[in-house]
Amino acid sequence: MTPFRIAVLVSGRGSNLQALIDARAAGTLPIEIVLVASDKPLAAALRLAESVGIPTLALDPKAYPERAAFDADLFARIAAHTPDLVVLAGFMRIIDPTVLTPWQGRIINIHPSLLPKYPGLHTHRRAIEAGDSLHGASVHFVTAELDAGPTIAQATLEIGSEDTPSTLAERLLAREHCLIVAVVALIAAGRIAMRGNAVLQDGEPLAAPLQLVGSNRLRINRGSGVLGQTLALAVTLATPMNAVLLPLLLSFAATTPSIAADIAIKPFHADYATLRNGSELGKTTLDLADNGDGTWTLRSDTRGTAGMAKLAGVHIVETSRFRWKDGRPEAVAYDFQQTTAFKDKTRHADFDWKAGDVHVVEGDGDFRYRIEAGIIDRQAVTLAIASDLQRGATSFEYKVAVKDRIETMRYTRATGETLNVPAGDFDVVLMQRDGQPGADRKRVARSWFASSLGWMPVQIEQTEKKGDTVTLKLVSIRK
């Protein structure tokens, strides 16, 4: 079989090029790199290509009267090598639209942000300055508009409190390498194409970009939204045997249930307006991310943006780390941090499955109690309900770790209704916790889940014993 032919355009050191070369040398990426071209004659990537016998091309834009002339000559020379795909791997130029048009659907770019966020430059700094909790990289088809072509796949990672633009860029680089290899493998296998402004996988439009899982898999959304059924595509980057197995695995995954069948919900980022008794209080983001080690993280971040919440500098971060088991989340660790100008509050819980206990530290309090199968923390209840709705469950009962014990929470599914939130109108199902507040119960919790979003919660509401109601309303969602 004739190898899939690619040309790679670079402007710098070529670390993504190195990832492609390494995967090809290992036999896990059945491609031929027919040309490496650059607008920088001294680019280190050119020396890298030459060291392994790949033809190179260096053109100086200053030698041309205008950008279009440079681009036309560059792509005429690329065409002479008859590539099936052109990969922009750190190529720092905008290509002239008239030159680009004949190549659309055959050019991809890797960009260091979760597009459509932060097109252009300085993406790491912009993500940190915006207070984002998640960052990542995207591979997209190239169109005339800068970094706006349809996104094929993304890799995510959490932004740490100590991250700087340089440390974030360095940590992301390893994910970029895995992402570009995995995407090129799918395109080479004929699994991914572009039609109009849509990405097709096996001839069907993708509902959302593929997501890199760990270092070697792209998960495909097969459902109607963020929480849809998923399939895992194995793109292992280790053994030469996979040069033979890869096409088989890719075709097998198209019709076989997921090898990660326990995973009910796809990673997402959602923005909510936060209100108290109908008035603006703050903004909340909710992120679900695959940690790549068998655990997942659900993180909410709320900041006061109006009234006393703004004056007091209210900032609440709640983080649940868990694993999927039988289609439901099961707790691994939990953190709660509330910061205000007047008082801070923290709670940390470890779920030690080997020792068989839960250890909770809150302020000066230290609590231990026996662990139980299927236990979750309080934040993960919403996720558990969504996954049960996704699975068609009829009973909604959860063992929830609170400060000093395990509490059983039961929810009732109410009749459907239509709900208007800033993100639009949705047909929803209301889920309400059974019982009323009492001596050991501080609030009534209700959540509205939209089936059209794969059972994503579009509104979450808590009514305190004194009557105050805090409501989260969905503003936007990114898959």
Can you tell me about this structure?
With 479 residues, this protein is an alpha+beta fold. The chain folds into 2 domains: 4-253, Formyl transferase, N-terminal domain (Rossmann fold); 268-478, Beta Barrel (YmcC-like fold), CATH 2.40.360. The protein contains 9 helices and 28 strands. It starts with a strand and ends with a strand. The model is unreliable at 221-261 (pLDDT under 50).
- Measure the end-to-end span: 36 Å
Biggest pleated-sheet summary = 15 strands, mixed
Structural class: alpha+beta
User: Count of DSSP helices?
Assistant: 9
Alpha carbon gyration radius? 25 Å
Sheet with most strands: strand arrangement? 21-20-19-18-17-16-15-14-28-27-26-25-24-23-22
Shape: elongated
Number of domains: 2
Give the helix level as a range of percent: 10-25%
Report the portion of residues in β strands.
35-45%
- What name does the CATH topology of the largest domain carry? Rossmann fold
Mean of pLDDT: 85
> Care to count the β-strands?
28
Would you identify the regions where 5 or more consecutive residues have pLDDT less than 50? Answer: 221-261
Q: What is the annotated CATH architecture of the largest domain?
A: 3-Layer(aba) Sandwich
Query: Superfamily at the CATH H level of the largest domain?
Result: Formyl transferase, N-terminal domain
Write the layout of secondary structure elements.
Layout: E1 4-10, H1 15-26, E2 31-38, H2 44-51, E3 56-58, H3 67-79, E4 85-88, H4 97-100, E5 107-111, H5 123-129, E6 134-141, E7 151-158, H6 165-188, E8 192-195, E9 198-201, E10 204-205, E11 210-213, E12 217-221, E13 230-234, H7 242-253, E14 268-276, E15 279-290, E16 296-304, H8 307-311, E17 315-325, E18 328-339, E19 345-352, E20 357-362, E21 365-370, E22 376-377, H9 381-390, E23 396-401, E24 406-421, E25 424-433, E26 443-450, E27 456-464, E28 469-478
